[in-house]
Amino acid sequence: FPVTIGSARLPHDPDKKYAYVEHPQEGWRVYLRSAVFIHEEGQPFNPKRFLVVKRTGSRMTSAAWEPPKGQMEGKDLTGTHGHNKSILQVLKENARRETAEESFINNLHSLTHTGLVFQGQESSYSSNHFFQYHIFRAFVDTKSLTQSYDIFDWISHNKAEFMKWKRDIREKDAVAWFNPKTTRLNPRWCQVS
Q1: How far, in Å, CA of 5 to CA of 58, rounded?
Q2: Cα 64 to the chain's mean position, in Å?
Q3: Within 13 Å of residue 134, how many CA atoms lie on the same side as its CB?
Q4: What does the alpha-carbon distance between residue 175 and residue 186 come to, in Å, rounded to a whole number?
Q5: Residue (of 99, 86, 103) closest to 149 by Cα position
Q6: Ramachandran region of residue 115, left (φ > 0), alpha (ψ -120 to 50) or beta?
Q7: End-to-end Cα distance, the chain
Q8: Rg of the chain in Å (alpha carbons)
Q9: Rounded to whole angstroms, how far apart are CA atoms 59 and 53?
Q10: Taking the complete model, does pTM exceed 0.70, yes or no?
Q11: Which residues does the chain have with pLDDT short of 50?
Q12: Burial class for 191, CB neighbours closer than 10 Å (0-12, 13-18, 19+)
């Protein structure tokens, strides 16, 4: 059976509708999300060197860093954005949008799905509802990276002005290269069993 594609409002943010796929007979539902591991273009590839952004208001030393990521919204599935596109194409567009909102990087190169998917379940979800982060890899050029650093530097000196920005683009207030000592990852990204 083909899955049903739709969107729904969730208790944590009833102002938005979030995209999902659902099995029509079995009833399981998966909310779609994207995460992007961004590496520096023109440098030897090192999978452990990737950009991370920090949750706004968190201490620099807290475990509040993560790759740019976010949930696919219902609006991504409709209109000119989602019309006649595969779920993978729309996830890729979601990855670009979330990266722009969270890191102020608008020019990703060689954005590709890694084939990896991180699945989990929020405590507020029904027992048969899940989320999936589809993991992408991309590269960023020096100019785009410098622009991102410059915006975050401005933010660090203009917090009151920053807080007036649209909610979606003030979720993160710092960017850096991942370092396990100085940019500790949100536990969601480094679970230990």
Answers
A1: 35
A2: 14
A3: 23
A4: 14
A5: 103
A6: left
A7: 34
A8: 17
A9: 12
A10: yes
A11: 80-82, 192-193
A12: exposed
Element (H or E) spanning 129, and its range? strand 129-140
Question: Exposed, middle or buried: residue 134 (CB in 10 Å: 0-12, 13-18, 19+)?
Answer: buried
Which residues are registered as beta bridge partners of 135?
Answer: 35
Contact between 169 and 101 (Cβ < 8 Å) = yes
Instruction: Please provide the size of the chain in residues.
Output: 193
pLDDT (0 to 100) of residue 136 = 97
**Predicted local distance difference test score (pLDDT) of residue 85:** 78
How do strand 65-66 and strand 51-55 relate by DSSP bridges?
Answer: antiparallel
Task: Return the residue matching tokens 């030897």.
Answer: 44
Q: Is residue 15 within 8 Å of 113, Cβ to Cβ? A: no
Reading the block at residue 158, the tokens are 């203009």
Strands 108-120 and 129-140: antiparallel
Report which residue type is found at 97: R
Q: How many Cα atoms occupy the beta-carbon half-sphere of 121 within 13 Å? A: 10
pLDDT of residue 26: 87
Q: Give the number of other Cβ atoms within 10 Å of residue 98's Cβ.
A: 23
Q: Collect all residues with Cβ–Cβ distance below 8 Å to 115 and sequence separation of at least 6.
A: none
